[in-house]
Amino acid sequence: MLHINENIAKTERVFPMQGRMGFLRYDMNENPEGLPKEFVDSVLSEITPEFLAVYPEPDRFLRKYADFVGVGFENVTAVNGTDMGIRYLLETFGQPGKEVVTVTPSFEMYRINCSLLGLKHVPVPYNDDLTIDIEKVVDAITDDTCAVVLLNPNNPVGNVYTEEEAARVIARAKEKGAVVIVDEAYHYFYPNTFLNHIKTDDNVVVLRTFSKAFSLAGLRLGVVIADPSIIHFVKNGKLTFDVNSVALLFGERILEHPEILEAMVKQENEGKAWLLQELSPRGYECRDCRGNFVFIKTKNDAHLVAERLEKEEKVLVHPYGNPLLRAFIRVSVGSEKAMRRFLEAFLRADR
Ligand code: PMP
């Protein structure tokens, strides 16, 4: 009988569906259409056998990234998607039995990593009207708390935090010796940021990803941004070569072309506005979730509509089991063209 780590053995995982390439994908908050092909081709043309033969060197990308967001090189480290950043941070700050405070429902990798690492997940539930009481989050931070997670905006609910709310959470966490992980995966769609706090609070870490606005989910690139003392420990715990050279090259090149990022964000925001404006006169209750996704309250059962979309229309969306969200599907946004294709299929499926 093999000895299996108990935390790994007891954690249940559901991995994403495979073979999504043949579908219209509005289920995982990717850009449904991706980067301009000429840009991709031009970066690919730089990849030589020598380039692929050499181990990855993240520093050039990191210097550019630090400049791009206005922090120092010593404030950043690259990770294999923010998924990996979450793991590193919970490994760095967590100890078995210690508590991690998040809101719920939220991005599930926080809960899963707690389970894998033997940390106690303390979920603060939303109210029935999908608002969250910051008091409840603050009260959940105790002497046993090692980390507090603020997703701004939260995926999937889409609520955001005010400066005052974030400051209260950060101050309370500091009192208790806990780190605050500010997950800004949807930055550029939602421009507010708590990045300034990394300069004044040495218990704040900001996570940014290249999977959403930058449209590079397949390459797995994220950045951890924090006080150098935190970056030091995160680097200590990291795999030596966790971010590959192709991801770093694409990251570097796209930072040299901010106009591409701007155009994509503009296009997706326009697509979102178009979709919401088309749905409302048709009697749909929608929610702009501030990121590149919206909630739509379906007229028929949301799971049935999602199933019809998948089976009959080859369109993927995200339904939820959580009772608070059961009535909704989450739909990732794209250009107006991508949203027109979605809407036609959706109206046929919600019959
Ligand atoms: N944080 C949030 C809030 C997310 O929604 C996601 C992806 N859906 C991630 C992190 C993970 O992103 P990445 O692709 O960088 O691992």
Structural description of this entry:
By secondary structure, the protein is α/β, with parallel strands linked by helices. It has two domains: 116 residues, Aspartate Aminotransferase, domain 1; 210 residues, Aspartate Aminotransferase, domain 2 (3-Layer(aba) Sandwich), CATH 3.40.640. Helix content is 41%, strand content 17%. The protein is built from 14 helices and 13 strands. The protein has a seven-stranded mixed β-sheet with strand order 2-8-7-6-5-3-4, sandwiched between helices. The chain has a four-stranded antiparallel β-sheet with strand order 9-10-13-12. Strands 1-11 form a two-stranded parallel sheet. Strand 12 and strand 13 form a beta hairpin. Helix 12 packs parallel to helix 14. The model has no long low-confidence stretch (mean pLDDT 97). 4'-deoxy-4'-aminopyridoxal-5'-phosphate binds next to helix 5.
Using only CA atoms, what is the Rg?
20 Å
CATH architecture of the largest domain, please?
Answer: 3-Layer(aba) Sandwich
Major beta-sheet overview: 7 strands, mixed
Please give the CATH class of the largest domain. Alpha Beta
Strand order of the largest sheet: 2-8-7-6-5-3-4
Order of helices and strands: HEHHHEHEHEHEHEHEEHHHEEHEEEH
Helical fraction equals: 40-55%
Distance between the termini: 53 Å
Strand runs, count: 13
Low-pLDDT segments: none
What is CATH's topology name of the largest domain? Aspartate Aminotransferase, domain 2
Which ligands appear in the coordinates?
Answer: 4'-deoxy-4'-aminopyridoxal-5'-phosphate
Number of domains: 2
The CATH homologous superfamily of the largest domain is called Type I PLP-dependent aspartate aminotransferase-like (Major domain)
Strand content: 15-25%
Query: What's the tally of helices?
Result: 14
Indicate the structural class: alpha/beta
Mean pLDDT: 97
Tell me the overall shape. globular
